Amino acid sequence: MRATYSEETISAYSSLLNREVTVTVLLPPDYSAGNTKFPLLILNDGQDMKALNLKQTIEELTSVSEVEHVIVAGVVAGDRLQEYGVAAQRDYLKRGRSAKAYTKYITTELIPYLIYKFPVDADANRHAIAGCSMGGLSAIDIAWNHPELFRRVGVFSGSFWWRKRDSASRFYSDHRDRLMHRQVRNGRKKEGLKFWFQTGTLDEQSDRNKNGVIDSIDDTLDLIVELVKKNYRPFYDIHYHEVKEGHHDIKTWAEAFPEFLKWAFGK
Questions:
Q1: Which of 17, 57, 76, 184 could covalently link to 22 via disulfide, CB atoms 3.0 to 4.6 Å apart?
Q2: Which DSSP string corresponds to 38-102?
Q3: Residue 109 lies in a domain
C-alpha cells in the first residue's frame, strides 16, 4: 500500500533576502505520531517540485522500501541569477550578488526553523541539499561551505561554467576562471561530504575547447577530478549519472530523481 505524503506551505519574510520566501514541505504519513526523526532534503527551485513529480516519486519509492521516509523542503526561487551562484565571488557579469545572503538564509533561518517545526533529525549525516542547473551550483556551494549541516549534495546539470571572466576573452582559462572548480581546488577536504552529479548528453551544444564533449559534461567531469584530487573516492564519495539523450530540462531531471533519492536516502 502506497503511503501518502502531505504538503504544507510556509511563507515568511526574510530580511536576509529582502523578500517573502515560500517553502513547500513534503511530510511523511503520520509524521507527527511517535518520536521518529526524519532525514531532510533541501531543494532549490522548489517551485518545480510538482513538475519533477517529487511527491509521487517519494511515495512510490517508500512504498517498496527503496528509500526511507524523508522530509523535503522546496524553497521557491526569487531572483535565481542573483541568489544562486558561488557565494564567495560574483561571476563576470556580477551575477550572484545575493548568493551569500541565500546561503545564510538556508543555514541560519530555514534549517533551524524546520528542525523546530517538524520532526527533522538534527544530524548532518541525514541532511542533503539538491538543485538543478543554477540551483545545482548553489546546492554544492552551500554544502561545500557548510558540511556541518549537509553531508550529501545532488547536482542535476549543474551550472559549473560559472566563471569570473568571459570565456570569449583572450585571457580566459578553464583552470583559473571557473569559480566552483577553483573553490574546491583551493579549499580543504570536507570529511564526510558525498556528491551525486547528473548530466545529459544533450544538455547543450557548446564545446569551448573543441574536444568533442559538450561543456556541461566537461565542466562536471573536471569538477569531479578536482574532488578526487582532494581524496574523495569515486563510486563511494562521488557518483556520476549520465543520461543518454538527456536534455537540460525538468523532464530529464525528473527521470533521474529516483536514482538520486535512492543514493541519498536508500535503505
A1: 76
A2: B-EEEEESGGGTTTTTHHHHHHHHHHTTSB---EEEEE--SSHHHHSS-TT---TT---TTHHHH
A3: yes
Q: Is residue 75 part of a domain?
A: yes
Taking the C-alpha atoms of residue 140 and residue 27, their distance in angstroms, rounded to an integer, is 24
pLDDT, tens digit, 9 for 90 and up, residues 184-224: 999 999 999 999 999 999 999 998 888 988 999 999 999 99
DSSP-assigned beta bridge partners for residue 12: 21
Q: Which residues contact 184 (CB under 8 A, 6 or more apart)?
A: 144, 223, 226, 227, 230
Domain contains 1: no
* Containing structural domain, residue 188: 6-265
What's 114's domain CATH number?
A: 3.40.50.1820
How many independent structural domains does the chain possess?
A: 1
Instruction: Express each pLDDT in 103-129 by its tens digit.
Output: 999 999 999 999 999 999 999 999 999
Structure-block grid coordinates of residue 263: 543514493
